[in-house]
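Hey,
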Amino acid sequence: MSPCGGAHLINAQRRHRPFLAVLGAVLLAHVLLLGHWTGRVDAGRVTTGRMQVVTLAPPVAQRPQPAPMPPAAPPLPAAAPAPAVATSPDAPARLAETPPAAMAASPGRAASAPLADEAELPDERPVQPPPLYATQVPPPVQLRYALRYNGRPGQATLTWQHDGQRYQLALLGQGMQQALVEQLSQGGFDAAGLAPERFTDRRRGRGWQAANFQREAGLISFSGPQLTYPAWPGAQDRLSWLAQWVAIQAAAPSALPAVSLFVVDARGHGGLWHFASQGEVMLEAPGGPLAAQLWRRDPPRPEGLRVELWQVPALGPWPARLRFTAVRSGDVFELQRLPGAQPAP
């Protein structure tokens, strides 16, 4: 470089010193504005002595937050356990029984018995109480019946006892070599007539089964299945319905066209029994034909029981004949009234 050129460069630097000083001051002011002299350290900041140089990072994309889930529904309460009932009901006072003998039902067919327990399916449960009727309780009596079970002969005794406050109704059906059925209904009375409390049932010498009418709890429970039904006023068991039917007929001022009763057995079956009057018919009897009123109950399903009842006014309010037919199996059980009613013992 020539001496002239060097002198020229030195003069130019001298002329621009004020401008460079101003530019440096401006840059320093920007740094001071961006930095902080407080000594605070944040993310993305590099500290050098008392001066902090901030490095700017690109913004981080924010993920959309999901909508809050609705609160979970509270769990359904567990079903209350069925009321505890005795699994081995106490047997009532034993009725006379001859030594048992084999009387097997036909293969593949449900065995019937007096007042047979053909299944009334659970969906037959009514959604409202049965109708109520005026009743007139009949006096105590003991009646004898000729029995036929699928054509086989036997005999039966129906004993009705009460003191105006409590009642007991017992049926013993005896075959040629064994007791076919032993049934006992016990309870009291209320404004709807008979109010059963306990019904026990045994077939062909097998174990006892029971239905318990828990009036205070408002339900009917059983010794076996954990099922319940409402203990409606007028509800009856598989034996007490007969005395209730007699009490309804005795109190009626005129002939009734139909009677409906809610009936349960000892095995957890229950449903409405609708009896419809079939009018007057002639009933064959040992002493000759008798004028009778025929009543009939047809089951709503083939699994049910058809019940036919003949009432002869000349013989009093109790039926002169009863026939129970298991519709599906065809088993038939009949009771034919024998002459001579006796006061209950």
